[in-house]
Amino acid sequence: MSEATTPRFRSVLDRFVAYKPGKVVVSPEGRSFKLSSNESPHGPLPSVVDAIAEAAENINRYPDNNATALTEAIAGFCGVPADHVAVGCGSVGMTQMLLEAVAEPGAEVVYAWRSFEAYPLLVALSGATSAQVALREETHDLAAMADAITDRTRLVFICNPNNPTGTAVRRAEIEAFLDRVPSDCLVVLDEAYREYVRDDEVPDGLTLYGDRPNLAILRTFSKAYGLAGLRIGFLVAHPLVAGAIRKTFLPFSVNSVAQAAGIASLAATDELLERVEGTVKERDRVRSALLADGWTVPPTEANFVWLRLGDRTMEFSAACDAQGVSVRPFAGEGARISIGAPEENDAFLAVAKSFPHRD
Ligand SMILES: Cc1ncc(COP(=O)(O)O)c(C=O)c1O
């Protein structure tokens, strides 16, 4: 027998650090407020729980692999034909599907940095190379991103509003950028936080893709729709793009309970958007309180705020942990804090107030 060896893994895994989800902490008094994953602070609506319970009766059967009813409901909701829609296992699953469709060794993927942590991980796994373009004043620098596109660029992600800074790019800048992108390069507008946007100048991607066959709009049920635990994301694009992406779908990866919950959630959009309105009010209250307290906080169109703490990021995160408030720190850069229920936001503001931060 030959000498024992370990299985051979792809070399990309040698340097690879898997995705780290937002943590949960508990204070010595037993308090635990999770402001680290940009989730909805609200539990599911009764109508959604009913749909989930009903769907649970049939989980001995495989789900509809085409998610036909959900796709039609999304298409109706977005006012687009059903062949413009592709669904996936969360928008992070859709991101992987997109990369499987366009990325390969030698290809480049352009995106702003810092942005959503899953982009570099999934690009690396796809075998393509990341071309990261620094944010300017915490915002996408779309002119620099257009400059970074080469003939190897297959995909550009624009995260709007940007995770983790909350900043959003406006219609004129996006259109000027799109005009510069070669038509064989796909642009993905990741609008995971679209429902929280209140700046009228920030376009709804669905109004942009009509005459742009290389633009895809990415949305999720995880944030405003409160279904993070069920994993549904979707993409809207021209049929050629949506069809290519659908080919990369991991069979059955949007389960039947999720499909039913997605349909029920769309039917309850008005109720859910009322909740979003509450979060937006809280966001504005939290940002105003931080500004009044002397913090620098970029304008945010999402359900979180960003504090550029630099070297003090981990110290700040530890101070939050000690009070049972978990935030999302990026060591050496800053911390992202999700907007939760008023009591949770107050607990975070109390930590921020007592943390030495004025020069
Ligand atoms: C910008 C952005 N895109 C996509 C996602 C992924 O969301 P999900 O996979 O839950 O749909 C997130 C989640 O935090 C995000 O911030």
The overall strand count is 12
Bound molecules: pyridoxal-5'-phosphate
Strand content is 15-25%
Shape: globular
Largest sheet: 7 strands, mixed
Can you walk through the features of this model?
The protein is an alpha/beta fold and 359 residues long. Helix content is 36%, strand content 15%. The chain has helices at 46-56, 68-78, 90-102, 118-126, 142-148, 171-180, 239-246, 256-267, 269-292, 313-322, 342-354; strands at 33-34, 85-88, 108-113, 129-134, 153-159, 186-190, 215-220, 233-236, 304-307, 325-326, 328-330, 334-338. Helix 1 (46-56) runs antiparallel to helix 8 (256-267), helix 2 (68-78) runs parallel beside helix 8 (256-267) and helix 3 runs parallel beside helix 4 (118-126). It is globular, with a radius of gyration of 21 Å. The N and C termini lie far apart (68 Å).
Annotation keywords:
about 350 residues, alpha/beta, seven-stranded mixed beta sheet, three-stranded antiparallel beta sheet, 11 helices, binds pyridoxal-5'-phosphate
